[in-house]
Every structure is written in C-alpha cells, then in structure tokens.
Amino acid sequence: MAQEWNIRSRGHVCSICTKPLVDKAPVISVLKELTDGYERLDCHPECWKAAPRDWEPFSSWEGVYLAPPPPDAKKEPLKKETADDLLRHLIALEDPAMKNVVYVLAVMLERSKILIERDAREQEDHTILRVYEHRRTGESFVVLDPRLRLENLAEVQQQVVALLSGTKTLGEVSAAEEQAKT
Ligand SMILES: [Zn+2]
User: Fold this and answer.
1) What percentage of the chain has pLDDT greater than the value 90?
2) Cα(20) to centroid of ligand 1, in Å?
C-alpha cells in the first residue's frame, strides 16, 4: 500500500550534474519507482536528454523551476494553506480508509489551481495513480484515484469539508470511512 501514498519535494540542484537549477527555467521532473516508494529527480532538460540510463521512469514531466520565495513574501490566504497542509498530513498518515478523502481533497486543490495534474497511470485493478505537482512549492504528490462512484462523492466531500472546518477529527472521519466500506 505504501507506494500509493507519496510526497516528494522538488530539488534545487540538478540531480545529474548537481549544479543549481535556474529560477523560471524549464526543469524535467522524474519519478523513479522503488520497492518502497518513489525517488524524484529534477534535472536540467539537456542533462536529462544526455544522461544514459537503463530504467524507465514511472512518470516524467516538464515544468518550470521556481526558486523558493524570500521569507518576506506574502502568504497565501489561510484557507488554502490549511487545505494543502491537510493533504500532506493525510498522505503521510497512509491510512487506507482515507483513500477516498485524500483523492477528493486533491481534486479540490486541483480545481482551486493549487495543484496541477502531471500524469495518470492506470493500474491492473483499474484504479489510477495520479501525479500532482504543487504549483508554488513544486512538491509532487502521488495520489490513488479509487474511481469513486458518483453517488459516494457527495458524502466524501462532506467529510473533507468537516475536516477543513474542524468540525470532525481525522480519527472520526477515518472511522466513518471504514464503516462506509462495509
Ligand atoms: Zn544538470
């Protein structure tokens, strides 16, 4: 299960030549599948093209490297920070009962333009692993799309809203989701 829940931050130096990545310049980001998760590489496009390799990436995409903002940069509205912090927290928990909640939250963050979908890989059981990248920080998130049925969507959205507003705890939502499956 562990490989379905993964966060990787973006590097600030090229994974191949180890020279710094350049602010606002193209960067190739790559996820390499390991037995217990993913390794992430961030490379100058020319280094990625030139480097020999004997393995196939799980996922790769071209983005734009953004240097971390200076400490005095304006903060995003509180609500948005709370939603993406919650996603990090949920992914780190690796609670299988929360898989629908994690996916619906990721979709909500994509709709509010905080995440960009970079790749989607269908698995043998027809679920999909979706790779999202955080627009501002460049972190990558591998999220399982459980192919929720439409009639279950509203209920899961309510759980996400309850978590964001603080009316329910993670433990309460996890118990309710576990119950909903049986
Ligand atoms: Zn390089």
Assistant:
1) 65
2) 8
Cα–ligand 1 centroid distance for 64 (angstroms): 14
**CA-based radius of gyration for the chain:** 17
DSSP 8-state assignment for residue 54: S
Q: Are residues 145 and 168 in the same domain?
A: yes
Summarised one tens digit per residue, pLDDT across range 104-128 is 999 999 999 999 999 999 999 999 9
First to last CA, the chain: 19
Query: Domain of 127?
Result: 78-181
Taking the C-alpha atoms of residue 108 and residue 6, their distance in angstroms, rounded to an integer, is 18
Asked if residue 51 is part of any domain, the answer here is yes
The alpha carbon of 116 and the centre of ligand 1 are apart by a number of angstroms equal to 24
Chain segment 21-71, per-residue pLDDT in tens? 999 999 999 999 988 888 999 999 999 999 999 999 999 999 999 988 766
Say yes or no: 86 and 36 in one domain: no
Q: Do residues 44 and 88 share a domain?
A: no
Q: Is residue 69 part of a domain?
A: no
